[in-house]
Amino acid sequence: MNAYIIGIVIPLIVLLLRNSKNRKRRGLPVDVGGDHGVALRNHRFTSPMSSAWEGVTTLAEMFERACKVHPDKLLLGTRGLISSEMEVVNGRSFEKLHLGEYKWITYRKVFEVVTAFGSGLAKLGHVREERVAIFAETREEWFIALQGCFRRNATVVTIYASLGEEALCHSLNETEVVTVICGGKELRALVHISGQLHSVKSVICMDDDIPPEASSVQHGWTITSFTDVERLGRENPVDADLPLPGDVAVIMYTSGSTGLPKGVMMTHRNVLATVSAVMTIVPNLADKDVYLAYLPMAHILELVAENLIASVGGAIGYGSPLTLTDTSNKIKKGTKGDATELMPTVMACVPAILDRVRDGVFKKVNAKGGLSKKLFDIAYVRRLHAMNGSWFGAWGLEKALWNFLVFRKVKAILGGRIRFILCGGAPLSGDTQRFINICLDAPICQGYGLTETCAGAAFSDFDDISVGRVGPPLPCSYIKLIDWPEGGYSVNDSPMPRGEIVIGGPNVTLGYFKNEEKTRESYKVDERGTRWFCTGDIGRFHADGCIEIIDRKKDIVKLQHGEYVSLGKVEAALLGSPFVDNIMLHADPFHSYCVALVVVSHPALEGWASKQGIAYSDLSELCGKEETGKEVHASLVKEAKKARLEKFEIPAKLKLLSDPWTPETGLVTAALKIKRDPIRKAFHEDLSKLYAS
């Protein structure tokens, strides 16, 4: 009897303690200036923080401090290429890589290289008023080049490696870039558009193997290898020309979803504020942590993350999305992916990456079937119900047992040591968040921010297991809601205030480069001197001070009969379908219904076709079959009902697409968010046919 009572009472106490913790105030009301509205601050800080380190006011000072405090710690690691071969699958060729162990350099060594690279820039004739562009995939030379430029107070223009030619020309010409630092692959893209570049005088190639055509006099530039610039600096050292807090550190070109990219001007003070704030909310972040860097460093999420890890003495190992796991597309079968080799403790992710991990695990589990699948399903349900507080199972010893028997293998996919995941760039589905919580046994915290706020705005606390929210304001930010009457949102709404999200604090950037009109439209300075950015996102404040993103002003379309459809909200709901890899909802004011373009999930659709006994020659043919369309549409309707969407919000007609949308196609951003205008143009005929049929 006593054991029975203990079995009931202890879980009850745990549940009550957990619920009381989740009810704590995470964001508190604050009196701020500017437009009428309601505002919150982080519960631990009465005013926005600018720096976590006394006397550190710039990114250059932060990095130098870290190198002095942790000189013998490992900082940057890169895998060597053992071999590369082509593999033919279904008539298509794929490159497969065999990568070796990580080779590391210490903080002391990196600082020496950074100092030498900065001196090399000066010796090449680069002066502080001239801008440098970094145009490359994420790699250790990217980080070194960034820090080297900071020591010369050279503003860095960041450009996605996947940016198209028109946007690349626009970015380089608008900022009048004098020096471009790039990889070998990106160098070939530069050569192709060299005749359209007006200001580039010098190109520094990160790879020693420079193609002959790149150094031709006709391009109007001199070309040097990264190694030679470093050697030149060692032989001709110069004193650092360090920046001030208000100097522009980075002009970051967004891979925006509409039109040409805009250059966001970020000062050292702006980026440092976000780095400092995130450091306070990642539990026990220290020099023992290992970070896997694979997202584009031209994206503010990755740039902040790498500077954050370096600031505390952690190690950064470089990888890529295509070599991330043992089963990634470019990893040779039987060899280790980046995560398995590195065994990171901390990662930054975008939802699309985590969705793929989840889908891959479920695909393997379903393929195995039998006892393995039953055991996984039981363990998952037990942990899920325990996490949701539905019953008193899967705590303590039982949780440890399930982790050992079932989830240990899942944790191994990302190296087995992950203790914290930072997710940003787009909304994360509740299902994927729960999957990570359960299978990796790690907190996954959703962040919310924009390039214009240096990725900083809100971030969920590691002990908050709720889904669908982005947490309270970061310690560097105030978050305010203001009325948007046209959309029917008001700060006086019940049960929660709703309105447009406006972000204020030291992380709010200067504005858009050479675009004063757009800057005046989006940025405001109140009577107290606080700088605010109007996001265009619609949010609501929960009672505990956490924020939920519920809409976006630009995504709302009025249908023929006056109903409003929020495209982003509907897409987020429909992404829950197992058949959907990506989706774009399209609404036309001259029609009473919506249609959708659906990029199908290959494994899910092929698995369904196999069970149904449907014959097809390729995936494109399968997508065109009537029964396939009906099955996918039924799945979308199911997800729509779960999300309580209105009938007019559910797409009436679909076009199924077999080819994925990637940054290289120009249809999604580097953060894998859809680009509506390019997609509309690319599939104009398909959309017209959907409405005509």
Task: Summarize it.
The chain has 693 residues and is α/β, with parallel strands linked by helices. The chain contains 21 helices and 28 strands.
Please characterize this protein's 3D structure.
The structure is a single chain. 47% of the residues are buried. The chain folds into three domains: 27-48 and 350-416 and 418-552, Roll (Luciferase, domain 3); 59-345, Rossmann fold; 559-692, GMP Synthetase, Chain A, domain 3 (2-Layer Sandwich). The chain contains 21 helices and 28 strands. The longest helix has 21 residues, at 2-22. Mean pLDDT is 89; it is low at 1-22 and 390-394. The protein is α/β, with parallel strands linked by helices. Strands 4-3-13-12-14-15-16-17 form an eight-stranded mixed sheet. Strands 9-8-7-5-6-10-11-20 form an eight-stranded mixed sheet, sandwiched between helices.
Which structural traits does this protein have?
single chain, 693 residues, alpha/beta, Luciferase, domain 3, Rossmann fold, GMP Synthetase, Chain A, domain 3, 3 domains, eight-stranded mixed β-sheet, 28 strands, 22% strand, globular, disordered N terminus
